[in-house]
Amino acid sequence: MTETATRLAALREKMRQTETDLVALGPGSHMQWLVGFHPHADERPCLLLVSEAGECFLMPALNAEGSRENTDIAFHTWSDDERPDAALAAALGAIGADKAKSVVLDETMRADFALRLLGALPDAKHTFTGETVGALRMRKGESEFARLKTSAAVADRALQKAFAAIKPGMSEKELATVIRDHFASEGAIPLFTIVGSGPNGAFPHHQTGERKLAEGDAVVIDIGARKGGLPSDITRMAAVGRPPEGYGQVHTIVERAVEAALAAARPGVKAKEVDAPARRVISDAGYGEYFVHRTGHGLGIDGHEPPYITATSETVLEEGMVFSIEPGIYIPRRFGIRLEEIVILRADGPEIFSSLPRDLHVSGA
Amino acid sequence: MTETATRLAALREKMRQTETDLVALGPGSHMQWLVGFHPHADERPCLLLVSEAGECFLMPALNAEGSRENTDIAFHTWSDDERPDAALAAALGAIGADKAKSVVLDETMRADFALRLLGALPDAKHTFTGETVGALRMRKGESEFARLKTSAAVADRALQKAFAAIKPGMSEKELATVIRDHFASEGAIPLFTIVGSGPNGAFPHHQTGERKLAEGDAVVIDIGARKGGLPSDITRMAAVGRPPEGYGQVHTIVERAVEAALAAARPGVKAKEVDAPARRVISDAGYGEYFVHRTGHGLGIDGHEPPYITATSETVLEEGMVFSIEPGIYIPRRFGIRLEEIVILRADGPEIFSSLPRDLHVSGA
């Protein structure tokens, strides 16, 4: 049985459990996971449709031949000089889904794709993929684990290159270039290279800029790249010479928050029960208002995917799930500290992908 | 008046003309065009909402501080430990849009963002941005023209580098690397580097691969990169030594199709009236079934945007619109030929951005 056949069978089992008549995926990571590829994504409606009876593509004619190399699934094509409505109707009819009452939509697909499909199914109720494709994607097999681990090792080495390169007067962008160049040298495609120096570190999603690193800066380095189709994601802290006043105490609190979340993560516990102890460590230390995000997110084909480790998530964690643990404290106008591990949940707890310590890296200044 | 204020005023004028109560944009190019930036795009609902009375953001708390550097528009924030519904309701109320009856949705936003918004406005009818933001974005000013032209010049030079590098035995990916390296050397971010050699050229959206260029191959090179925030897009043809049998005749037909479309493009004509003459040249020559796509697409912040030059588009072309003219003929298992110009429509016809001829580049083999 091919991987696609196995995954389609697992999806149909989830569809029966959730009384779903139709699953519709756009050209993105859900489609990639299910059938191993996705056609070029643009403004041309393109959907993979799965019902109990069968599966088929609504396919822009332009992409039909190229996609045919990747799949045997039937195509209902439409060309640039016609609207896709007739091909969509034919596709729905071909798999007995033209009267679908309950539709699972790929939440990431373009709004116009989704509303066109719902327009063709006026009686349908929609949900998103959380209980079906999303639930299946959360648990990784050993081959995915091995590939994610390979990708993580590349990120570890890129981070070590960054540590070695840090010096006062270098801009954030220059440091990001060192990281990107290392990723490229190992055949990895950089996804993000956040370098938040000094006060910029207090913006969790800081856009790496022209600010020059200065002595006494704490520097948040949060990087990821895609290698072998799968992403990495790691955050570590560096200091340019002596860290700012009060840094060490806050770093210790974030480290304890990471440890508390790692200790709580076991199969059978809810995601919010992993978020809570990290949040409690930070709140109890008086920094609660400065921990402005969730504790973590899943990682697979997408850099952010379920399970999300939030204060309110009821998702029950299972063996084989891969997610980040990344609490942070962001003190406006001073510095930010985030420490991030990616883990796979084993029967006895989380296994960390990275081999780098979470200590502050002090670069000689 | 700032550019944002000018564009918001123009948008409100379009909203009045189209009886639109609310425009909702996701973190993407429409938002970038309107307010000059967009926050980090991920699974967290983030919307820019514009009504007659005002404008505001639904903003993930995580991105609030970083975004505040870029805009004075009010934020309604929500954090990872709550759902965005209350913040969305507050945002709609703040601009008097909580009873909106007609909503324009950014067609590119995620399906879940759009359906969440429509769920909060159960009486609203939706359309997409074609008559409002899309219509405004089609006409470029001289400063956008100058920046697009700069970006196009970088692509011309990258293509010349590729021509110089072509030799038998080189893989498509290796040639793409030459192109990407050139883009990077000029500070441009590569967007796509399609190298379709020999029979691969017959796939319009071929994924550049490991196939090695061989003597007698025709090679489609379709490349683009972002420079100064704006993209380029150009396609030219190369041959490795002597082109395949019958190549010259087909190249001449595609060239005549380009010329026919260029001759037809004038302010006041419909987009389909530019597509038609290109299509007619190819059909009359007996290759109609091998011209599987539209004649062109607009280019601005997005590499593909309105106006689309299709067989059925009623869009009336206006002075200042920027779009591609790119007919092609794709002969399965043999070769493909596409020639692509980006033009800006002037009062007296199209002005071509590229300075490269459309002749076949024959590389010494």
- Major β-sheet profile of chain A: 6 strands, mixed
Strand content of chain A: 15-25%
Question: Low-confidence parts of chain A lasting 5 or more residues at pLDDT below 50?
Answer: none
Count up the domains of chain A. 2
Separation of the first and last Cα atoms of chain A: 58 Å
- How are helices and strands ordered from N to C of chain A? HEHEEHEHEHEHHHEEEEHHEEEEEEEE
Main sheet strand line-up of chain A: 4-3-2-1-5-6
User: How many strand elements of chain A?
Assistant: 18
Describe the oligomeric state of these chains in a short phrase: homodimer
Instruction: State mean pLDDT of chain A (0 to 100 scale).
Output: 95
Q: Largest contact between protein chains?
A: A-B, 44 and 44 residues
**The CATH top-level class label of the largest domain in chain A:** Alpha Beta
Count of runs of 4 or more consecutive helical residues of chain A: 10
Radius of gyration of chain A: 23 Å
The portion of residues assigned to helices of chain A is 25-40%
CATH structural fold name of the largest domain in chain A = Creatine Amidinohydrolase
Structure classification of chain A: alpha+beta
Name of the CATH superfamily of the largest domain in chain A = Creatinase/methionine aminopeptidase superfamily
